């Protein structure tokens, strides 16, 4: 990670679809937890974003609570910081509409994530999926947050957020919205699929074999790592030896982040050794990290009222920050107040 931020207002979000995986954890959630110490943090379960593709209504409600529990178990502190679900703070939708009118269609057409998610039959997708990046910009700028911890796949959306802020400021001739900075980890910004090192680890992949989920049991973790794609060569002793060995690079990167060691250090220990030794050490590290989160999540899920209350309090605190900012933005664009 680059220099840790301090004294910033932080905003980030995660979609409450499926169970968060190792990519979500090492790319984002670990940073969310880390930077709570010196910053004011606002973390959001983005249920409105989830709706851009069909969600079963009962499952969506359940997943919001489940992810609340997982984030708490991972170390988010809802007393000192804010944890809430997006749809409960109306300022997000109101600012997103203004941004729909600021963003140019050409900007939207350049969004690679839309192209990836929409697939071949683009016209069959929801309009929500298309304008999703405007809602994401609104999420951040409704709080005038300046630090956004995310994985690499969100970089383009943050650049768009800055373009929107600049155009709004220019169109309405004032310095209203700040520029935002992504906090993107160095090594784990893009954790790859365990079965295919050229594909990102993703919740939407139909096979769970390519991802470790934060609620996986220990034996599932061991089996997934055992079956993770590797190659027939032993691990190299130098980093250069990982070039063109995508799967090996991915596993070594995961190990390095979990062990808090550089890739060089990891290869000093494992260079020349076969994958079976390395994979078994990697499983141990994963279990050490994930088992306590899984256990704590289960405990928290036993008390849904508690989770509801956390979100309710979080939403009230989030509204108190976003409401005056978004009301002012509405006034600036000419809405009668
Ligand atoms: P989402 O729910 O897809 O993912 C949540 C976070 O996990 C990161 N991530 C990864 N990091 C490393 N390797 C991977 N394989 C991997 N997969 C996912 C994502 O980069 C993200 O940080 N649009 C966002 C949610 C969002 C948001 C926001 C984020 C909505 N509004 C405002 C920041 C600020 C998303 O879909 O994340």
Polypeptide structure, described:
The chain is mainly alpha-helical. It has helices at 22-34, 47-50, 57-74, 91-102, 105-109, 112-118, 127-141, 155-171, 218-227, 246-259, 263-270, 275-301, 304-333; strands spanning 9-14, 40-45, 82-85, 147-149, 181-183, 192-193, 196-200. It has two domains: 9-188 and 304-333, 3-Layer(aba) Sandwich (Rossmann fold), CATH 3.40.50; 192-299, Tyrosyl-Transfer RNA Synthetase (Orthogonal Bundle). It is built from 13 helices and seven strands. Strand 6 (192-193) and strand 7 (196-200) form a beta hairpin. The chain binds tryptophanyl-5'AMP (TYM).
Layout of SSEs?
Layout: E1 9-14, H1 22-34, E2 40-45, H2 47-50, H3 57-74, E3 82-85, H4 91-102, H5 105-109, H6 112-118, H7 127-141, E4 147-149, H8 155-171, E5 181-183, E6 192-193, E7 196-200, H9 218-227, H10 246-259, H11 263-270, H12 275-301, H13 304-333
Helix pairs in contact: 3-12, 4-7, 4-13, 7-8, 9-12, 10-11, 10-12
The chain binds tryptophanyl-5'AMP.
Tryptophanyl-5'AMP (TYM) binds next to strand 1, helix 1 and helix 7.
Which short descriptors sum up this protein?
binds tryptophanyl-5'AMP; 337 residues; mainly alpha; Rossmann fold; two-stranded parallel ribbon; 3-stranded parallel sheet; 13 helices; Tyrosyl-Transfer RNA Synthetase; 9% strand
Helix content: 40-55%
Fourth-tier CATH superfamily name of the largest domain: HUPs
Count the beta strands. 7
Using the alpha-carbon principal axes, give the shape.
globular
Uncertain segments: none
**First-to-last CA distance:** 44 Å
From the 3D coordinates, which CATH architecture of the largest domain would you assign?
Answer: 3-Layer(aba) Sandwich
Number of helices: 13
Please summarize the sheet with the most strands. Answer: 3 strands, parallel
What is the strand arrangement across the widest sheet? 1-2-3
The rounded Rg comes to 21 Å
Find the structural class using helix and strand composition. mainly alpha
Attached small molecules: tryptophanyl-5'AMP
Overall pLDDT score: 97
Strand coverage percent:
5-15%
- Structurally, the number of domains stands at 2
Instruction: Kindly provide the name of the CATH class of the largest domain.
Output: Alpha Beta
CATH names the topology of the largest domain as Rossmann fold
């Amino acid at each position: 990670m680059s220099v840790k931020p301090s004294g910033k207002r932080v905003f980030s979000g995660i979609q409450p679809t499926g169970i968060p995986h190792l990519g979500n954890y090492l790319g984002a959630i670990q940073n969310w937890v880390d930077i709570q110490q010196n910053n004011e943090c606002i973390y959001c379960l983005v249920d409105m974003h989830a709706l851009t593709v069909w969600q079963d209504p009962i499952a969506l409600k359940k997943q919001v609570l489940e992810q609340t529990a997982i984030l708490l178990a991972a170390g988010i502190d809802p007393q000192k910081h804010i944890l809430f679900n997006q749809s409960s703070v109306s300022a997000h939708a109101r600012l997103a509409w203004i941004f729909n009118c600021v963003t140019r269609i050409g900007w939207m057409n350049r969004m690679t994530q839309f192209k990836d998610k929409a697939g071949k039959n683009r016209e069959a997708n929801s309009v929500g999926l298309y304008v999703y990046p405007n809602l994401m910009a609104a999420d951040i700028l409704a709080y005038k947050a300046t630090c956004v911890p995310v994985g690499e796949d969100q970089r383009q959306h943050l650049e768009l957020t800055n373009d929107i802020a600049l155009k709004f400021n220019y169109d309405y001739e004032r310095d209203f919205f700040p520029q935002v900075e992504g906090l993107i980890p160095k090594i784990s910004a893009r954790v790859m699929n365990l079965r295919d090192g050229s594909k990102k680890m993703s919740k939407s992949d139909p096979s769970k074999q390519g991802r470790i989920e934060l609620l996986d049991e220990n034996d599932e973790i061991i089996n997934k790592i055992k079956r993770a794609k590797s190659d027939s060569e032993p691990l190299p002793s130098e980093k250069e030896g990982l070039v063109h060995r995508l799967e090996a690079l991915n596993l070594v990167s995961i190990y390095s982040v979990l062990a808090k060691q550089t890739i060089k250090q990891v290869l000093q220990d494992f260079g020349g050794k076969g994958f079976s030794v390395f994979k078994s050490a990697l499983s141990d590290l994963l279990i050490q990290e994930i088992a306590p989160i899984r256990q704590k999540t289960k405990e928290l899920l036993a008390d849904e009222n508690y989770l509801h209350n956390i979100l309710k309090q979080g939403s009230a605190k989030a509204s108190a920050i976003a409401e005056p900012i978004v009301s002012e933005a509405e006034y600036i664009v000419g809405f009668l107040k």
